């Protein structure tokens, strides 16, 4: 419980699930805005779980024009600044060609497009996060 100017409020913890792709959906932008607003109000984002087409948010090879918003960089900055865990659903990621260095080595691939800021996880990580958090918010 926190105290601000005579008022008490209970800080909440959130798990965010993002299912919309980086540059074909407004979902990632809404999720980022929600996360920043929640953090600014003293709440905590425990984990962002990227599911379905949401795994495209983890592509380190995207190159938006210099005057466009860089969704990948925004997720990376959020994670670094606020210790937010970024988890890609491994099944959805591999199905869509979103490969981490570790997975590339395991599969014998010479390239990868997901750097260490994101890690692969299963639905179990989503469920364990839900058990720890006060709320799940889906985008």
UniProtKB/TrEMBL annotation:
Cite the GO molecular-function annotations of the record: transferase activity
Give the location in the cell: Cytoplasm
| Keywords for the protein's UniProt record, in alphabetical order | Cytoplasm, Transferase
Entry annotated with the keyword Thylakoid? no
* InterPro entries, alphabetized: DsrEFH-like, Sulphur_relay_DsrE/F-like, Sulphur_relay_TusD/DsrE
What Pfam families is this protein classified in? DsrE
> What EC number(s) are associated with this protein in UniProt?
2.8.1.-
Query: Signal peptide location in the record?
Result: none
- Its domain of life reads Bacteria
PANTHER family membership: PROTEIN YCHN (PTHR34874), SULFURTRANSFERASE TUSD (PTHR34874:SF3)
Q: Which family does it belong to?
A: Belongs to the DsrE/TusD family.
What is the designated name of this protein? Sulfurtransferase TusD
Q: Which organism is it from?
A: Shewanella khirikhana
Task: Supply the source organism's classification.
Answer: Bacteria, Pseudomonadati, Pseudomonadota, Gammaproteobacteria, Alteromonadales
């Amino acid at each position: 419980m926190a105290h601000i100017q005579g008022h008490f409020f209970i800080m909440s913890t959130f798990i965010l699930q993002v299912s919309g792709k980086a540059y074909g959906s407004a979902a990632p932008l809404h999720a980022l805005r929600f996360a920043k607003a929640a953090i600014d109000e003293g709440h905590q984002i425990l984990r962002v779980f990227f599911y379905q087409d949401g795994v495209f948010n983890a592509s380190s090879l995207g190159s938006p024009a210099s005057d466009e918003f860089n969704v990948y960089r925004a997720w990376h900055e959020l994670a670094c600044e606020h210790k937010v865990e970024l988890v890609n659903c491994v099944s959805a990621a591999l199905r869509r060609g979103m490969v981490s260095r570790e997975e590339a080595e395991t599969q014998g691939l010479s390239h990868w497009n997901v750097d260490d800021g994101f890690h692969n996880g299963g639905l179990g990580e989503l469920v364990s996060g839900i058990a720890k958090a006060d709320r799940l918010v889906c985008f």
